[in-house]
Design goal:
- This protein is mainly alpha-helical.
- The protein has three domains: 119 residues, 2-Layer Sandwich (Bacterial polysaccharide co-polymerase-like), CATH 3.30.1890; 149 residues, 2-Layer Sandwich (Bacterial polysaccharide co-polymerase-like); 35 residues.
- It has a two-stranded antiparallel ribbon.
- Helix 4 packs antiparallel against helix 7.
- The longest helix is centred in the middle third of the chain and has 100 residues.
- The radius of gyration is 64 Å and the shape is rod-shaped.
Length: 379
């Protein structure tokens, strides 16, 4: 039980628990009620049940605790003594009471262990439930963050796509305007077919010999393309319905938008069937939970204390003690005899004193002889 780390109990504490049970009013009362046949000899018909029990509890049963710290070399112990009438089976009463108290304390101890065990299991289960709830919150938060990031990225790509479309449209309109201006210039110069400034110079100065210098790094004006080419290009630009093919970035945007349609990480998170496998910091709790659930404590096999010596029938009764009674009787007889002798002597002394006083009175009260009248003068 101590190795389970759920409940720790030292031998001294176990003995104190049993001693407290033996000295407990409730334990004694429960035993008294559970075994009425054992206490028939103690019952007084003129007293109530509570009075009979109180007399047994106060006068008959005594408990003595020996502290090992005070007695060197001895362990702590509890001793019970019971005074009982000769017709009563006091040995059975005391032994059964000790067994009753030990069994009661064993059941109480196992109940306490089971309660603590149940509380510990419930605590671990709540911790796992809390971890599960925390995981669910984290999972939903992660999914929400991923979906929000995807939505933000889609919105950014859509904005970029719309901006590119507007830009391409503006570029196309600018090109159409530039082509229209170039067509007017080409018509005024009579340029129908594409030509170059050098070619035009040769046509204008065939009869003269000239030396021409052409700067090749300068862009040839657009009207040299000729009206046919310019009008064909302007017509094509005006009939164009979409400019997206002219910008490679748009294809990349569509690719990213397609990839953002489904977030594979969110899919995998939603497809998880056993969420407990992904809980963090609960492996130790799961092991502890399995260990506690598999724990079984046998109440019958749990030995709390050792009964060093059970009660036995005494070799001689405690009461009456004949030698003591004889000695006390002798002393009482002597004192009583002396007392009676002293009282009688005192009474006799008083009587003798009273008789002596009465005799003296009688002597003093006797009549004296009266002299003759003839011989004495008369006053």
């Amino acid at each position: 039980m101590n190795r389970s780390t759920v409940y720790s109990l030292s031998p001294e504490a176990a003995l104190l628990k049993v001693g407290a049970a033996l000295d407990s009013y409730e334990t004694r009362l429960a035993f008294y009620k559970a075994n009425p046949s054992l206490f028939k000899e103690l019952e007084d018909a003129g007293k109530s049940f509570e009075q009979n029990f109180e007399e047994f509890n106060q006068k008959s049963l005594r408990m003595t605790v020996t502290d090992s710290a005070k007695v060197s070399g001895l362990s702590s112990s509890v001793m019970l003594e019971l005074d009982y009438p000769a017709k009563m089976d006091g040995v059975s009463v005391l032994n059964r009471f000790v067994s009753f108290a030990v069994d009661s304390e064993r059941v109480r101890l196992v109940s306490d262990v089971k309660t603590i065990l149940g509380n510990r299991i419930a605590e671990i289960e709540k911790s796992i439930d809390a971890a599960r709830a925390s995981y669910e919150i984290d999972k939903k938060a992660k999914i929400a963050n991923l979906e929000e990031a995807d939505a933000l990225r889609r919105a950014q790509l859509q904005d970029e796509l719309n901006a590119l479309r507007q830009q391409l449209k503006a570029v196309r309109q600018d090109r159409i305007e530039a082509l229209g201006e170039a067509i007017k210039i080409a018509r005024s110069l009579g340029i129908v077919k594409p030509t170059t400034p050098s070619a035009m110079a040769e046509e204008n100065s065939r009869m003269t010999t000239t030396v021409r210098t052409e700067v090749n790094n300068q862009q040839t004006p657009l009207y040299f393309m000729g009206t046919e080419t310019l009008e064909a290009e302007r017509s094509a630009l005006q009939q164009r319905k979409s400019d997206e093919f002219t910008e490679p970035r748009i294809a990349g945007i569509f690719k990213e938008l397609q990839l953002l349609q489904v977030n594979r990480e969110v899919q995998l998170l939603n497809k998880r069937t056993n969420e407990d496998l992904f809980l963090s910091d609960v492996d130790a709790l799961r092991k502890e939970l399995v260990r506690l659930r598999a724990m079984r404590i046998d109440a019958d096999g749990l030995q709390i204390v050792d009964i060093d010596r059970r009660a036995v029938t005494p070799s001689a009764p405690v009461k009456p003690q004949k030698a003591v009674i004889i000695v006390i009787s002798c002393f009482l007889g002597i004192f009583l005899g002396c007392g009676i002798a002293l009282v009688r002597e005192f009474i006799n002394h008083k009587r003798r004193a009273r008789l002596g006083l009465a005799h003296s009175v009688n002597v003093m009260g006797q009549a004296l002889p009266v002299p003759s009248a003839k011989g004495l003068p008369l006053d």
